[in-house]
Each structure stands twice: as C-alpha cells, then as structure tokens.
Amino acid sequence: MSMNLHTNLHERSAARNLLPLVVIIFSGFLAIGIPLPALPLHVNGTLGYSAAVVGWIVGIQSFATILTRKFAGSWCDRHGPKQSVSLGLPLASCAGLLYLASTYVADPAGSIAVLTLGRLLMGPAESLFLTGTMTWGIGRVGIAKTGKVMAWQGIAMFAALGIGGPLGVAIQQRFGFAGVAWSTILLPLVGFAVARCLSALAVTRGHVQGLSFTGALALIWRFGLALALSAMPFAILTSFLVLLYGSYGWQGAGYAILGFSAGYIGVRLFFAHLPDKIGGARVGAVSVAIELCGQVLLWLAHDPMAALAGSVLTGIGFSLVFPSMGVQAMARVPAHSRGIAVACFMAFIDVASGLTGPIVGVVIGWYGYPAAFLAGTLACVASLVVMATSRPQKPASVAQG
Q: What pTM did the predictor assign?
C-alpha cells in the first residue's frame, strides 16, 4: 500500500509540474490555430488573391519553422528552456502585431507583404516556445517520464489546433481579420505570464560541449524517420478525407474527423504512461500496426461506416507514436543537448507535413482518392520496417540527468 501511495504522489507531482507547460502550449498553439481558417477568407475574399497565394501564405509558416528548428534547439541548450519560451511567445505576439498592421495597409500588395512578414516571424516563434516547453517538461519531471511529457503536450497542441479552427472562423465573421490578429497578439502573452512564474532549470555551461544539429541527427534519425512515416497518414487524413467522402457522395466526413480526434485524444488520456512503462519500441510498433489497419480500412472502404472505423483506428494508432519514438530518441542524447535533440526530432514532423500533401496529391491525380490511403498504408509499413531494423542500443551514460 505504501508503494502505491508513493506512486500516486509521484504521479500527482508530475502532473503539477506539467500542467503549467500544457497551458503554455495550449495558448501558444491557439494563436497558431485561430488564424488558419481565417487566412484563406482574408487573403482570397478580402484582398482578392488566388488560391495559390492563399496556399503560400498558409504554408510559409511551416517552412520558416523547419528552417529555425536548429536555431531554437541551440538557443534552448545555451540559455535554458525558460528563456527559449520567454523569447518565442513574445515573438508570436509580434507576429500578431504584423497581422494587425496588414489590415491598415490599403494597397493589397503592401498588405500581403506585411502579412507575409508576420507568417515568417511565427515560424521561429513556434520553434522556440515548443522546443522550450518540451525540454522544460523533461527537465521538470525527469527523463524517465519523457513519454508522458510528449503525450500531454501533444494533447494540448492538437486540442488548440482543433478548437482554433471553428473559433477562428467565428472571430473572422464577427470582428474581421483584425479580431483574429488581436487574438494572436494576446493569447501568447497568457502563456508568457505563466512561464515567468515558473522556476528555470539549471543550464550546463563552460567546458561541456553540446551536440551539434548533425550530431543529434546521427543519434536519433531512425526514430525521427519512423515518426515521420507514421505521421504521413495523419497528414493524408486531414487533407484528403473530406474529398474522399465527396468523391463517393457520402455524408459524415466531419464525424470521421471527429472519430480520429476522439481516438487520438482518448488513447493519450488513458495510456500516455505506456511508452515510459513498457518501452517505446514495443508501444511504437503496436501503435503503427493499429494505424496501418486504419489506413487499409480507408483504402478499401465502400461505405462511410468503414471509413469512420478506419479514421478512428488511425487516430488510436497514431496517438502514441510520437511519445514512443520520443522516449527512445531522448534517452540517447546528453541532458545538456536535449533542446537541439527535441528540435531535430520535431523537424521530422515538419518535413512529413510539408511533403505529404504535394506527393499524395500527385498520387491522387493518377489513381484517385482511395490511393491516398494506400500511400498511408505503405508509409506505415515503411515505419514498421525502420523500427524493426533499428539496432537495440543502450542509452548513453551522458543521457541521464
């Protein structure tokens, strides 16, 4: 009984240490999620630009995020995660200020130029505050709970992006794009206020040499690649599921997307401890196998119920891949280089998100919408192959701390 009491107290302590960081992630990503549906309405409907320009304005932030992951990781390791978060969140607010400034420029070309600057600035802002909170969380609860840190913060990210969509449309309709801009200005400041109240972690300085980006990549690339391949079905589902339903004349695509989200969040709420408890390799392999089954159902679906089941299975399967691969990756890097390792690890998701749409779009052009989920199936198979061929490796002694 005393052991159970000690375990429960330890879990509560971990939850208390992680909750403020979850709030920071949620407020920061809400500032990213709210503009996403509003940007096409503003750029196309108000400024009169084409769909191609809309795609550029929406996607340029991801491009900026990828390019600044290395900087964010190095900054976090040199100055500490609190400073990384405390720089990233104000930068996000500054991006919102540029969004707002663009609404005061009468010339559409000038307005789109200022808006583009804001989108570019949001890239390093996200890199800094996300890398900082991930690293801060691991430092606050210990390397042994890396999976829980990544699972909880992942819930905050997806919840914020999910809520941000309809909220952004509502704000745009009621207050215009200026209202969206004000939301982007204010929300990161909520997270900033929380961050300033938390104690900083000790930063290792002096003679200890941190890993370079390429050094971190050499240690964790297999886990990052497995994650990227398993993230492709998620990107496919969010991009093309509605179009699959439309091509068949089915109703209920929204329920299928909701089913994916329910499966994803439900597993994280109740089973986030599994990667830490029984190992990332085992949980990751089982998770991707479930995700594969979901993609096969979507590929072969002949009615909306089968597609709904496939969406739910995809969400259940994808849910724990990120923390499972994260547990393995973070165990192989020194404690003083976790920032660059987190940044490197997250870059794999950025690349997968950026490449999946264009590649699968070409596949759909050749073979139709069901082929998108065949591509997702093959990505899951490739992820399992990468996991299976990864040589067992003991965590380096420097990884502790």
A: 0.72
